[in-house]
């Protein structure tokens, strides 16, 4: 399978994972290892990556020498807050430009505020950030984010943390078919079959956190997600058979039967 290329760098895994909601850093690392993920996203406003010298540092458990750290702006509700947060992250990560932008519009459903997201994306791209952006599954606004210069567009499958899976596959197909940058499903995946469906639709990858961290066995679920991503990608590349309603098609040959 072809590798996933983001901002000019190739990755073997098409599964991106978060670091929140685990019981401790040890479980976080075990789940990430089981997932096979190479890109790990970190909420700068919620997790210590060096901004608090007196607290445990996540980067001791998830070292940047081993993983690509993807700082994100979870918890930001304005473009200004998001930009400020990512400027801090770039300082803490020695100039690392790759980032995940999310600007939320509602604290209850965590749906993105798209006007503020577009505004922040413009500023960050101009400042040299390589922006991966969480957004609504709106084909028009996804194209606008691509044209601004985002290196990946990340429409939600359903609400963050909902586990509802892909509620609008038709919009995702419109987005995928019209994109020239990677499309990565972000938010809403609940189990491995959801990840597989996203990949079968043609998504370039899937980012998830809650589906793994809130499973009864997070490490085992991480392993399942790894396999689900791989199966979905292979199925997409293989090309599924056409659906044939009301028309049977025997799987065994009908010529040369005994007695015929």
User: Count the helices. How many?
Assistant: 9
Task: Compute the average pLDDT.
Answer: 92
Cα end-to-end separation: 44 Å
Task: Tell me about the largest β-sheet.
Answer: 5 strands, parallel
Shape: globular
CA gyration radius, whole angstroms:
20 Å
Helix/strand-derived class?
A: alpha/beta
**Low-pLDDT residue spans:** none
- In percent, how helical is the residue content? 25-40%
Widest sheet: strand order? Answer: 5-4-3-10-9
Tell me what you see in this structure.
This protein is 37% helix and 16% strand. With 260 residues, it is an alpha/beta fold. The strands form 3 sheets. Strands 5-4-3-10-9 form a 5-stranded parallel sheet. It is globular and about 80 Å long. The model has no long low-confidence stretch (mean pLDDT 92).
């Amino acid at each position: 399978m072809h590798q996933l290329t983001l901002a000019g760098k190739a990755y073997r895994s098409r599964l991106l994972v978060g670091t929140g909601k685990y019981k401790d850093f040890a479980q976080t690392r075990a789940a990430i290892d089981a997932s096979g993920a190479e890109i790990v996203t970190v909420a700068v406003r919620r997790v210590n990556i060096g901004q608090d010298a007196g607290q445990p540092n996540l980067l001791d458990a998830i070292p940047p020498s081993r993983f690509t750290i993807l700082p994100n702006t979870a918890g930001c509700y304005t473009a200004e807050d998001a930009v400020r947060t990512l400027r801090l992250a770039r300082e803490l990560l020695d100039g690392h430009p790759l980032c995940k932008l999310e600007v939320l519009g509602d604290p209850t459903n965590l749906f993105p505020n798209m006007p503020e997201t577009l505004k922040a994306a413009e500023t960050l791209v101009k400042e040299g950030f390589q922006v991966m952006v969480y957004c609504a599954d709106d084909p028009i606004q996804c194209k606008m984010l691509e044209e601004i210069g985002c290196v990946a567009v990340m429409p939600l499958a359903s609400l963050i943390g909902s586990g509802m899976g892909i509620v609008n596959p038709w919009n995702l197909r419109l987005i995928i078919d019209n994109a020239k940058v990677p499309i990565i499903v972000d938010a809403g995946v609940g189990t491995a079959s959801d990840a597989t469906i996203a990949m079968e639709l043609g998504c370039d990858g899937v980012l998830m956190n809650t589906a793994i961290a809130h499973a009864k066995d997070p490490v085992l679920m991480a392993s399942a997600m790894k396999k689900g991503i791989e199966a979905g990608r292979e199925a997409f590349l293989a090309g599924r058979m056409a659906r044939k309603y009301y028309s049977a098609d025997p799987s065994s040959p009908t010529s040369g039967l005994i007695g015929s």
